[in-house]
Amino acid sequence: MSNRLVALGRRADYQIRQNEALMAAIDELRAAVAAEKTVTAGVLRLLEDLNTRLKAAVTDESLQGVKEVIADLTANTAALSAAVSANTPGGPVEPPPPEGGTP
User: Fold this and answer.
1) Could you tell me the end-to-end alpha-carbon distance of the chain, in angstroms, rounded to an integer?
2) What is the pLDDT of residue 103?
3) At CA 102, angle to CA 71 and CA 40, rounded to 5?
4) Sorting pLDDT into bands at 50, 70 and 90, what band is 22?
5) Model confidence pLDDT, tens digit, residues 27-85
6) Sequence-distant (≥ 6) Cβ neighbours of residue 32 within 8 angstroms
7) In terms of Cα–Cα distance, which of 68, 78, 43, 70 is closest to 54?
8) Whole-angstrom Cα distance, residue 69 to residue 86?
9) Angle 64-86/2-57 helices, nearest 10 degrees?
10) Measured distance CA(30)–CA(61) in Å, rounded
11) Which of 88, 89, 81, 53 is nearest to 69 (CA)?
């Protein structure tokens, strides 16, 4: 019977070490996800700011090329937001509404 208790004790010790390793890995994963969210939020802010500044700079109809770039930027921002939403546990990330209607 004592050999059996020793074996059970060893198994319990092994399980405890495995659980501790798993918890450490989960903590590391949580930190990586938090860092990713920070980067993603920064990219979205950058795209939104650039989009706003470009729209403010375009006042002449002859700048159609710039307007097309603005539309592309707005579409890229929406695509990035959709990709982040699709891969974010805990709920979607809402893309910013396009200014002045559809891009």
Assistant:
1) 76
2) 44
3) 60
4) very high
5) 999 998 888 888 888 888 888 888 887 777 776 666 777 777 788 888 888 888 887 77
6) none
7) 70
8) 25
9) 160
10) 48
11) 53
Polymer length in residues for the chain: 103
The per-residue pLDDT for 17 is 94
**Hey, what amino acid is at 42?**
G
Cα separation, 50 vs 57, whole angstroms: 11
Report the predicted TM-score, pTM, of the whole model to 2 decimal places.
0.47
The DSSP secondary structure of 35-71, one letter per residue, reads HHHHHHHHHHHHHHHHHHHHHHH--STT-HHHHHHHH
Question: What phi and psi values does residue 58 have, to the nearest 5 degrees?
Answer: -90, 110
